[in-house]
Design brief:
5 strands, alpha+beta, single chain, 18% strand, 147 residues, two-stranded antiparallel sheet
């Protein structure tokens, strides 16, 4: 996901669907009010605590909850809000593998995958089918509009 916001929406994306184009944000402004209605005049102000709604999926939270993690701005959508937890489970598995094998961080994922292939061979599992099924799970867990 590439985000091209460079003005007032810079660093903002819906954590549920990934939208980064349009939001409803509660603002504070001056208005000229008459019997015929109201017209906003002057600046509009909002802050991190402002009530915010995604115009695409309707997700509702404070503006600060729509801020993109500055370390990882390219995360795919997380419609269930579970992918941080899923990543933590995978991190625990890799940490256990590294501890058991002594492999370095750079090689840990590919070595673990290779060892899982060996395990699959010895335990009558179809690794390719499991990998395809895992990819299907990943896609379901990251569904959402991608810009």
């Amino acid at each position: 996901m590439t985000i091209n916001n460079h003005n007032c929406l810079e660093g903002i994306a819906c954590p549920k669907c990934g939208n980064h184009h349009r939001f409803k944000i509660a603002v504070e402004t001056l208005a000229m009010v008459t019997d015929d209605g109201a017209e906003a005049i002057g600046d509009m102000n909002w802050n991190e605590e402002s009530d915010t709604h995604c115009a695409e999926c309707g997700h509702h939270a404070r503006l600060k909850d729509f801020r993109i993690n500055p370390r990882s701005p390219n995360f795919p959508p997380d419609p269930e809000g579970m992918n941080d937890q899923r990543s933590a489970w995978a991190e625990a598995a890799i940490a256990a593998f590294r501890l058991a094998t002594g492999t370095d961080e750079e090689d840990a994922l590919c070595d673990l995958l290779a060892d899982l292939m060996h395990w699959s061979d010895r335990n009558n599992y179809d690794f390719e089918a499991a990998f395809t099924r895992g990819r299907d799970h990943y896609e379901a867990e990251t569904m959402g509009e991608r810009p």
